[in-house]
Amino acid sequence: MVTPSAAILRGTPVVPGVAYGPASLVRSEVSPAAIERYDGTAYADSDAALAAYDAAAEAVAEGFARKASSASGAAAQVLTASAGLARDKGLRGAVRKHLRADVDVLAAVNAAVEQFVSIFTGMGGLMAERVTDLQDIERRIVAQLVGEPEPGVGVPEAPCVLVAEDLAPADTAGLDPRLVLALVTERGGPTSHTAIIARQLGIPCVVGVVGAMSLAGGTPLLVDGVAGTIETEADPDEAADRVAADAAARSALASWSGPGATADGVPVKILANVADGESARSAATAPVQGVGLFRTELSFLNRQDEPSVDEQAEIYGEVLAAFDGDRYVVVRTLDAGSDKPVAFATHEGEENPALGVRGLRLSFGNPGLLDRQLEGIAAAAATTGTETWVMAPMVATVAEAKEFADKVHALGLKAGVMVEVPSAALLAHRMLEVVDFLSIGTNDLTQYTMAADRMATDLAHLTDPWQPAVLQLIAITAEAGRQAGKPVGVCGEAAADPLLACVLVGMGVTSLSMAAAAVRPVGAQLAAASMDECEDAAEAALSAADPTAARDAVRALLV
Ligand code: PEP
Ligand code: MG
Fold it and tell me: Mean pLDDT lowest for which of 42-51, 369-378, 504-513?
């Protein structure tokens, strides 16, 4: 294990780039002295105490809303959601209940938040990730009540590397990339807010760095968002050279304009992951050949009732219309359940939702749900004329794949399945006898191969697609595609990692689908490597003992 005193700390790299600057440690707690001085029982009655809570919660919500109005995209959405959570009526009701039981206001806030934390934790997945947001709101409300500035990131006076245990949305959303050179957190996984916002701002970011919070403020840090390393004793001149080389390499990447191919001209489709019409229109301006993953369930997270076929056709049509001409769209049928609860589809009260009735499994007991969605997709394809492929998530058996493909073929569309469950990877050759293409969902494939919840911040070292067992399953799937002469793509986060993307291509993957922000770095990295080099990289990664050795071996070959 790495100790805080070691010259190199290691974590999970989530946003590439190299930065050098002094550590600025983020204070995440209200000072105990201020809490000590405050008498939460001094109010005349519980109504007066509740009024104090209301004022504090409203001040916190206004703070979030103010930051949201000067942010954009994912950052603005995250902040608006936090403002809503601070004003949440359920939370207020719980505070009122505890105040009536005659406890002091700080204890009432704490009890109410704990109540919601255990509900969110019990729901698992994305809801469990919101626990950090809730605890951040509690600290801010407490700060308002005791008359302290809200904890979190202040405005840095000079460029620095922010080091925190984990960053809350309010911290990350207001960051100025000119002053914050990199983000380093002790906790948090690849899907944490820290990672999402760092990706949007293009700030190098490493998460899950054990010992980061034991560093002294002001320590010069050389952060490498590709290698996942934090060097505490780097030579300043060497560090400056590495930062300059990285900046030059990044500006070369930004000019990549497609189409996807290796240096010796082997075509590889570079595609975008989208969620709705708006993200599709934006992705369509990137140098992509289409959409490799349209996550349909994301349009329905706030819906109580299933949309009609016509309504669905309209929603899907918006995405398809953004990719007419010679581009194509892979629509994924509803992947409801587990980390993506959809009110009208998800099964309630499952012991273990990630292993439960989710994805394609929802159609076992409710075939109409899938049939209506396929009808909506076919109608949108007919209206727009866009080439439309359809795939199912969470497929475990060949029989499931066949039943799904038969339905899709009956509508005259290309049919595929996602490879997210190890059984599907092991049987890829048989899957390909019944479907037209496969798409590897490395996020879930990693989760199920390693038996590690993809949202668990403490398991980030296991939920890493560079794990040898995950790479073996991808290689088996890609080889099955080669032999069958059918396309095998990757649409999980692994495709957005430029070095891993080359490894995947070396294994035989024919398309890479990713967040639009990753398209240019991935396309440019691939354009710099020949197919032979990609194959060598694949071999090196497959024979490495662990993710760190695999990354190091591939970097030595390709960078
Ligand atoms: C995956 O599991 O890799 C995937 C692309 O699907 P999602 O992230 O939506 O579960
Ligand atoms: Mg998945």
Answer: 42-51
Total Cβ atoms within 10 A of residue 207: 28
**Contact between 273 and 286 (Cβ < 8 Å):** no
Chain position carrying tokens 């090196």:
540
**Phi, psi dihedrals of residue 294, rounded to the nearest 5°:** -105, 110
- Clarify whether 205 is annotated catalytic: no
Number of H helices, E strands in the chain: 22, 16
| For residue 73, pLDDT beyond 80 | no
193 classed as catalytic: yes
Q: Per the structure block, which two tokens stand in for 10?
A: 């290691």
- Binding site membership of 443 for ligand 1 (Cβ less than 6 Å): yes
- Cβ 441 under 6 angstroms from ligand 1: yes
pLDDT at residue 371 above 50? yes
Separation between Cα atoms, residue 465 and residue 228, nearest integer Å: 14
- How many angstroms separate the Cα of 518 from the Cα of each of 150, 196, 284, 498, 525? 34, 12, 14, 8, 11
Protein residue with least CA distance to atom 8, ligand 1? 443
Residue pLDDT, tens place only, 62-71: 988 887 887 7
Q: Is 231 in the pocket of ligand 1 (CB under 6 A)?
A: no
Task: Give pLDDT tens digits for 109-152.
Answer: 999 999 988 888 777 666 666 787 888 899 999 999 998 878 87
Residue 6 pLDDT > 60, yes or no?
no
Among 160, 205, 491, 502, the active-site one is 491
With 90 as the cut, is the pLDDT of residue 259 above it? Answer: yes
Residue 444 Cβ contacting ligand 1 at under 6 Å? yes
Q: Residue 164: enclosing H or E segment and its boundaries?
A: strand 160-164
Is it the case that residue 35 has pLDDT exceeding 60? yes
Instruction: Tell which atom from ligand 1 comes closest to the C-alpha of 295.
Output: 9
Residue 511: which H helix or E strand, with range? strand 511-514
Q: How far apart are CA 502 and CA 497, in angstroms?
A: 9
The pLDDT of residue 151 is: 81
Ligand nearest to the CA of 298: 1
- What is the average pLDDT value for the chain, to the nearest integer? 90
User: 492 C-alpha to center of ligand 1: Å?
Assistant: 5
CA distances from 38 to 5, 94, 138, 143, 144 (A): 38, 22, 16, 11, 11
Residue 454: pLDDT above 90?
A: no
335 lines ligand 1 (CB under 6 A): yes
Residue 154 has pLDDT above 70, yes or no: no
Catalytic entry in 160, 193, 461, 502: 193
